[in-house]
Amino acid sequence: MSLKFSIITASFNNGQTIADTIQSVQAQDYSHIEHIVVDGASTDNTLQIIHAMQRRPDVIISEPDNGIYDAFNKGIALASGDVIGFLNADDFLANPHIISRLAFAMENENTDGAYANLVYVKKDDADKIVRTWVAGKYVSNSFRYGWMPPHPTFYLKKSWYLKYGQYRTDMISAADYELMLRMVHKNKATLSYINETMVNMRMGGISNKNLKNRLRANKEDQRAWLLNGLNMPWYTPILKPARKLTQFF
Length: 249
What we know:
This protein is an alpha/beta fold. The protein has one domain: Spore Coat Polysaccharide Biosynthesis Protein SpsA, Chain A, CATH 3.90.550.10. The chain contains 8 helices and 9 strands. The chain has helices spanning 18-26, 46-52, 68-78, 98-109, 158-164, 175-186, 211-227, 236-243; strands at 5-11, 33-39, 59-62, 83-86, 92-93, 113-122, 125-133, 155-157, 191-202. Strands 1, 2, 3, 4, 5, 6, 7, 8 and 9 form a 9-stranded mixed β-sheet that branches. The termini are far apart. The model has no long low-confidence stretch (mean pLDDT 94).
């Protein structure tokens, strides 16, 4: 029996990019996909664009929320798939075959989740690559050395969210890191790695906008370890941002 994938898109005033996101999901050659759009009561033309599309996402809700992680949790509650992943409304899947590759790897390797590589592209020119994040294969204790999978490529079986919880909405920018730390490092979810670009991500993430935000994210990373009863090595906060330097070369 084929795995069913639920792809959750959180949106808020993304009228300029939401169509690209939706069309990249609809272009997939894997048939067992459910696309859920959780909109935070957009005030631009986001909803008009969605509803004007010839083929709409399977589930669309629009209501005020308490930020992107709250929207993610709403999507998880709505998801009927075996596997859950997230594709933000500024981003798009890199090719029509990537979900097929994730499904094949998870089924053949009997893993709990999967991830792949990611490229950052210019906000106003999606054909221009700025950074390339080659994730590399996960090995035990990789998180201690500053490793993490690119969150937009991270797919995990829904049963893990039901067992170990959803995103912490009391974190500003590192709830994705905390969740992956909790699932993979602490509770030992097994992962398949697909060594190809899965997501094109437009520049402008909240944790990378400036030095102040980067320092705040670093403190939240340390808090993520504490919340999970884990001892963060002294070198992890140094290695984690240092790893990003290789993405520019």
